[in-house]
Write a structure and sequence with these properties.
Blueprint (H helix, E strand, L loop, with lengths): L7 E5 L3 H19 L2 H5 L7 H20 L8 E5 L3 E6 L2 E6 L3 E7 L7 E8 L2 E8 L2 H23 L6
Antiparallel strand pairs: 1-2, 2-3, 3-4, 5-6, 6-7
Helix pairs in contact: 1-3
Length: about 160
C-alpha cells in the first residue's frame, strides 16, 4: 500500500490598513517635505541649503514608503507545499518552485517561542520569509517537512560516484 502524498497549505494574511497607512504616510511626508522647495525656487530662502537637503531626503523616504506599499510583501501570500514542488500564490500570480532551488533554509525561533516563529528560505537569490504568529506547532511541522525535502533533493542531486 502506497502512502498518500502530503500537502501543506499556509496563508500569510496582510491587512489592507497597513497598505493604506503606508500610502497616506508616504504622500503626506513627501508633500510636507517638498513644500520648502517652492519658496526656494521662487528666489526666497537662499541661505537654507542644509534644511532643504534634509527635507529632500525625507521627501525621498516618503516616496519610497508610497512605492513600497504596492510591493508583494504588502498583500496576502499563499503557500502550497506538495511532495515534489511548492507553489507561491500572490497578487502577481502563481509561481511553481522545486525544492532543489532552495539554497538556504532557516528556522528562526525567538526567546519566547510561543509568540511567533519564522521560516526563512533563499530561493534563486530571493529571500522568502514565512511568519507564523501564535502557530509554533504549524511552523515546526512545516519546517521538518521542508528539511526532509531539501536534504532529499541535496542527496539525490550529488549522484553516485563510481569508485574504480
Amino acid at each position: 500500500m502506497e502512502a498518500e502524498p502530503r500537502t501543506y497549505r499556509y496563508n500569510v494574511k496582510r491587512r489592507a490598513r497597513r497598505r493604506i497607512t503606508y500610502r497616506i504616510l508616504g504622500i503626506v511626508m513627501a508633500l510636507l517635505c517638498l513644500s520648502p522647495f517652492v519658496p526656494f525656487f521662487m528666489g526666497y530662502g537662499k541661505g537654507h541649503i542644509v534644511g532643504l537637503i534634509c527635507c529632500g531626503i525625507f521627501a525621498l523616504y516618503g516616496i519610497y514608503l508610497f512605492v513600497y506599499s504596492f510591493s508583494n510583501g504588502m498583500y496576502d501570500i499563499s503557500f502550497v507545499f506538495n511532495e515534489d514542488d511548492f507553489i507561491v500564490k500572490n497578487r502577481k500570480g502563481e509561481q511553481t518552485h522545486f525544492y532543489s532551488e532552495i539554497s538556504k533554509l532557516d528556522h528562526i525561533v525567538p526567546d519566547n517561542e510561543n509568540v511567533y516563529s519564522i521560516i526563512h528560505m533563499v530561493l534563486n537569490g530571493e529571500s522568502i520569509i514565512i511568519p507564523f504568529t501564535l502557530k509554533k506547532t504549524t511552523c515546526d511541522i512545516l519546517y521538518s517537512f521542508l528539511m526532509e525535502k531539501v536534504t532529499i533533493e541535496d542527496m539525490s542531486s550529488t549522484g553516485d560516484t563510481d569508485d574504480r
